[in-house]
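Blackboard transcription, Thursday session:
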Amino acid sequence: MRLHPRAHRGIGALSPSADPLPPAWIVVGREDARIVAVRLDAHGGQLSRTSIPSEELASLIADEDAGTRWVWHDTPAWYPQLLAAGVRVARVHDLRLCHAILRDSATVVDDGGLRAATEWDAAAVVEPAPAALFELDAGAAGPPDDIASALAEFARQRAALDAADDRGRLRLLLAAESAGALIAVEMRTAGLPWDPAEHDRLLSEFLGTRPAAGGMPVRMQQLADEVRAELGDPAASLDSQPKLLRALHRVGILAESTSRWELVRYEHPVIEPLIQYKRLARLYAANGWGWLAEWVHGGRFRPVYVPAGVVTGRWASSGGGALQIPRQLRPAVCADPGWALVVADVAQLEPRVLAAMSGDAALARAARGQDLYAGIVDSGAVPTRAEAKVAILGAMYGATTGDSGRLLPALRRTYPRAMALVDDAARVGEQGGVVSTWLGRTSPTTSAGWRDTQAAAAEPDASGADEARARRRAADRGRFTRNFVVQGTAAEWALVWLADLRTRLAAMDPVDEDRGAPASGPVFSTRPHLAFFLHDEIIVHTPLARADEVAEAVRDAAASAARLLFGRFPVDFPLDLRIAQTAAKD
DNA sequence: GGCCGATGCGCG
DNA sequence: AAAGCGCGCATCGGCC
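(Written on the board underneath:)
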């Protein structure tokens, strides 16, 4: 694949201060059995129109300037085939994802008909699972893929953007969101390098030897026997919550649920082995040998990432529990021979984002350096690091009681601007309003049920129960909007970090074929590539020879993200970064 | 035999 | 009702 020298400009080209429009847009869509590509000028005027057979799209894109932004209806519907053909796409505008942002954004004052174009509210196209290939409804439909619909929707989106209060921020968000759509497909294609032998070894270590035929692993079986002995019931069911609860009651443990946090409060010899058993049973069921056989093939774990799958803009995943891999299994994430992993996460991303977006200089000062919580202790707001942590989490989540609630007044005195930002967001939510992130992603409006509840409580004949219920639901919504602005802005920071890094990685020199990692596919087998992303953490799989350069790029990208979002506001986003063979924390 | 809500727990 | 946000998945048990 050839890389254009201008590729390194990446999303920086869409930063508010840089040139406002990319050099060219090409909208692609289907027409009959062919693909039509329409080249637009900076004002949306049509410069040319090309009709090609489907199989020629890859070469059309490969031959085009890397600065071109491709506009298409839905990235998962187009991109996997291109990557399989060896073609990387530098920049896109994903109409489906951008539609959702613009549709909901409170900063868009005149939507130009965009909100009425409901066919664009569809879920993403998903490839059918192998087992479902022969079913009639295989795969979700997705938004319209014809060229006329794409052109019309793109025109609406440009008009909506032009009428937005803060075009620079929204434009950055749309660019980053679209880059995320590419990255999600790229990470699935390249896969997360996963060593099945190490996974098997870890399972045997934790669970005990795997029995030949069915049956429970040895260590699990021993714990189960121990628990049943303590319960005095050799046939006790440990996996059915109601049955287990009754068995516990019979030996005098009058817990109301079987969850760990409640069990630990009881003194009884059954508690320890039971909790241990539950831990192992969880690992066995969620990420045991069955998971390994189903999800790891050819040394790669390939989950489906769902960009913006969470209302706040965070990513979700579908299949394989990609975002819930237990830390215990991290050592199984293992670079190919001759390759390394660059593993990086941002320490305390959300409070740092809160400091920046609220312009709270005192909190930003506490955030200088590696440990924000230590900085808070140094400021004298609270005595210990543990208290700083629960206080900050409580502020962002809306705690009202307990240790966390008790510490909030001190936090309000020391960080009034940061606290005012989250308190305001909560108040708006309680009153039924919407809130927006730093770049303009806006929270959902109230549901009909929520409004009915509030209306019922306002009636003259409302009961005390009606009022209590309305207050509770208002408070619930307040905690949601309080957290939305912080979680959502943190997701934007991470997305910009990721997008910027992607561009830097693509600009690096590839290594020779014989040092490649073929399982990563034609585009990524000879160059560093993103392999994993989890809210505030990334893993890059890289040829050993590029590892230091990648680490540098990861840091530079974080600095870029901070600058693109918050300009010169002095807040640190320190990375915990390591170059290693495995993703295990040392 | 499939659907669905509740429960519990993994991740940030 | 884990005080305090956002998810996905496995399992169970009630239901049609």
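Lecturer's comment: Residues 241, 257-260, 278-279, 282-283, 286-287, 314, 321-327, 349-350, 487, 490, 534-537 of chain A lie near DNA strand B (CB under 10 Å from a C1').
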